[in-house]
Every structure is written in structure tokens, then in C-alpha cells.
Write a structure and sequence with these properties.
With 325 residues, this protein is an alpha/beta fold. 38% of the residues lie in helices and 15% in strands. The chain has helices at 14-23, 34-44, 46-52, 61-68, 103-110, 121-130, 176-186, 207-212, 228-235, 248-251, 266-276, 280-297, 300-312, and strands spanning 4-8, 29-33, 55-58, 76-79, 115-118, 135-138, 161-166, 193-198, 216-219, 240-243, 260-261.
Length: 325
Amino acid sequence: MGKHLLVYDVDWWILGKQARSIQQFHQDLDIVSLAELLQGINLHGSEHWNTKYEVISTMCLGLASHLISRGVRVDSSAAVSYYFFLSDFETFREWQDPIRVNEAFVDAFVRPLRRIAATNLRLTQTLQQIVPGTEVRYVRQFADPDRFKPLEHIVKQQDALTIGWAGDKVKRSKNYYTLYQAIREHYREEPGIIWLEASKQLSYEQMPEFYNRLDLLLVTSANEGGCAPALEAYSCGVPVLGTHVGYLQEIAHPAGHSLLLDTDDPEAFIQKIEAWRSRRGQLAELGALCRNHIVSQASADLTMDDWVKTLFDIGPRRETPALPG
């Protein structure tokens, strides 16, 4: 077997961390950031990389498009969002809207792939319909429960409900300025609720402390390939109130499914907050169930076989159904 290559975006963010995790389960895998590979292409040309590696894979379809447009062969890719291959990816509501395919992007950058590892069930089914000639497999996202865990030294507010939001507020699909701000504005004069936000100003290493200060995390996205903040919050023992997007249904403990909403109406979120704001003890109990569910179902050693098999066609494929619920 020849060497394999996995390309990620940057070292300090989620895809870079995940690429390193995958490498631990694949002894003949080189990993490289996009910037490093582009520099190498400028120095040696694309054919150098096409010849050197038997399999070239990327951590998302956007990265695959960068490489293919520069003459690098891409054999497989993870699909971690609806970005680019849908024409309305900024506004597409995953729970109800029809699929509008960006045919130019799909023809140029998705159909050439032999295998795709998709990180939620609806995303998997969508891509299977769009590119039936490509092997598209659902792969469960893996958590890092040793990093994202309850922290005993973090003391939560005793007299207020602490609600958090995490993500890139600039991305329209996150609905920061529409849904999230509408919910927060409703409680503008309410002293019994504290709001905390984490965008790019917090490093990956700082995120466990952020989650541990929360009673509840809000997810307001129109669509997600996954939803890393939800996975990380659950792993820290924090329940999630969110739109029904990404892999939330798959990773949530069944007791948390009622907090996943098929709507982006702020009033529906406000009603849920009102129903839970005086039940912080029960929220903490729900968070503990979510934490145990992640540890037992979504650790890397339970999910990585399918990632390696789908991206690099190595080893037997183990069935990885959706999490119970």
C-alpha cells in the first residue's frame, strides 16, 4: 500500500484537530494544511503530489475544490456542511427547504470524488441523491471527551440561567443577527438570564471552560453538516436548545430531543427557555445524560474505523448507525 495524504484547513481549528485524530488510526497517513500544500504545489507542481500519494483526501468539499482547481487529484473527502454544493447554502433550512443544487460546483468538484464521508444522515441522503455514482457513507462524528468534560473548578451562577451561543456570527447560515439576537432582545431587561458568546476570539483550548459556564447552549443555524459546538457542549455535560440541524438528533440523548426544533421562529425558542428557566437542576441532570451518551457512543475508538475505511478504503467497514433515539 502506498502513502496516503489528508488535507485540512488550519492547525488551530476543528478540521486540523480532527485530521490529527484520524492520523492516530492510520499509520501510513501524512497530513498537511492547505497553505503548506499550496506552497508545495508552487514548488513542485501538482503531478508531484498525484504521483507521490496513492490516495489524496480532504477534510471538506471546499478544500477538495481548492486542490482539484489546481490540478491535484482528490480521491475522497469528508462532507461536513452544505456549503458550495447547494446554491442557497446560506439560507437553506435543513428541516424543511427543497434542495437546490449548485450544478457547476457539483460537476467540477464533487462528481470526480470516488468516496465521500458525510457527517449527518440528511447530508448523506442528499449527496447520495445528487451524486449516485459516488460512494457516499454516513460516518459518525467523533468527540474528544477527555478535553471536553465537566470541570469542577468552574462555578456556575447560582441566581441566574446562563445561556451561551458559539460560532461564526458573520456566516449568514448561523442566524446570529436574526434568530439569536431576536431571542436575546426579548430578554434585554431580564436580570435572571446571563448571555455568553464565543466566536473566533476564543481558542479551541479555551472552549471547555466556556461550555462549563453554561446551563444551556443555543444553536440557531439554518443548516449544519455537523455542529461541533453542540457535540462539545454535550461532552461537557451541557444540554442544547437548537434548530433541528446537522447531527444533533444523532448525538443527543433521547431525553434531549424535545429541545431540537423544526423552526427558526424566535417565539418557539422563548417558550422552551421559559419552560426550563426555573428547572436548572433538571437541566443539569439532562446535561449529565448527554455527557454519558457521548462518552458511550461517540468516542474516536468507536467511530474511527468507518472514517478510515470511507476516506482511504482500508480495513473492514463496521456499521455505524445513527445514535439511539
